[in-house]
Write a structure and sequence with these properties.
Layout lengths: L1 E6 L3 E7 L5 E8 L2 H4 L2 H19 L6 E6 L2 E3 L2 E5 L4 E4 L1 H8 L4 E6 H12 L8 E6 L3 E7 L2 E2 L30 H5 L1 H12 L7 H10 L4 H25 L3 E6 L5 H14 L11 E4 L6 H9 L1
Parallel strand pairs: 1-4, 4-8, 9-12, 12-13
Antiparallel strand pairs: 1-2, 2-3, 5-6, 6-7, 9-10, 10-11
Length: 301
């Protein structure tokens, strides 16, 4: 059995994945503000405790561990993760000391989720395609002739840090006007909460239901329209550069697809964003949902 670990900007998911890419056991935890103060310890303890329980209590044989983490990964080291606030973090070495007989691999989280969707999910039938993960930040993966494009120097395809607003808001990376400042699901949810005078603790199903209850209010319509416009700007840049047959959107966007997906398609297809309109890509939603990161990490391993 393989373990797939999906580390995000606000959560961690750990899954036991079989040879068919099916999750047999899963642990998911949101990262609290208190845990964020020493996030390296939180990751270490959560991962090690969970895997040890599966090995020792449930008597499960594990031969590989794959970890997906946001940011730049080079030679299995986390060089720089903007949304986690960590750099030069050798998580592989830490895990190898605890599990010396298990093969361990670390890769950018969006690349892992993209691999899952390309092999088992919404991108199976496409050769040239893009995966975009909309969550705390924005990550991505690009496939050409069916293969993941992997630059030699680092992870590559940091779609979230394209500049879409000249002299825009400052991103956590230090640049101004990055795509993820305007197009991440964190931005969308924060704007909705501000609009409805909600605290940051209002999340998940409660926030989603509140949006649905207030969909006809002008202030909510304005937030959604602005978010869709910013998404279209970022996506159109990707399409013009890479000419994909399809774009798959994953991350927490999948939970809001009933509100956002058709509006996104209509705006992108009917407005003047894309240069070559005869080659408009299909827009699809991740079939594996938020499990794509776990499954993809295990696949990569």
């Amino acid at each position: 059995m393989k373990v797939g670990i999906d580390i995000g900007g606000s959560h961690i998911g750990i899954g036991l994945v079989d040879s068919n890419g099916k999750i047999q056991k899963k642990l998911e935890k949101n990262i609290t503000q208190e845990e964020r103060k020493d996030i390296k310890v939180f990751f270490k303890e959560t991962i090690i405790n969970t895997i040890n329980e599966w090995i020792n209590k449930d008597n499960i044989f594990i031969d590989k561990i794959g970890v997906g983490i946001p940011g730049i990964v080079k030679e299995s080291k986390i060089k720089y993760s903007v949304n986690l606030g960590i750099s030069n973090y050798d998580l592989k070495d830490i895990l190898k000391k605890e599990f010396p007989n298990i093969d361990i691999h670390i890769k950018n989280d969006a690349k892992c989720a993209g691999l899952a969707e390309k092999n088992l999910g919404a991108l199976k039938k496409f050769d040239d395609c893009i995966f975009i993960c909309l969550g705390t930040g924005i990550g991505g993966a690009s496939f050409y002739n069916g293969k993941l494009i992997t630059p030699k120097r680092s992870s590559g395809f940091e779609f979230g840090h394209m500049i879409i607003q000249k002299n825009g808001e400052i991103c956590r990376c230090g640049s101004k006007g990055c795509f993820e400042i305007y197009g991440s699901m964190r931005r969308f949810k924060n704007d909705i909460r501000a609009c409805l005078n909600f605290s940051e603790e209002i999340e998940g199903e409660k926030l989603l239901n509140s949006i649905k209850e207030n969909l006809k209010k002008e202030k909510i319509i304005n937030v959604i329209n602005e978010y869709i416009e910013n998404l279209c700007i970022g996506i159109s840049n990707i399409v013009d550069l890479l000419e994909p047959e399809a774009i798959c959107i994953g991350g927490s966007f999948v939970y809001y697809k009933d509100i956002l997906l058709e509006k996104l398609k209509k705006e992108l297809y009917n407005s003047d964003y894309i240069f070559y309109k005869e080659n408009m890509p299909q827009i699809v939603v991740a079939e594996l949902g938020n499990d794509a990161g776990i499954i993809g990490s295990a696949l990569y391993a």
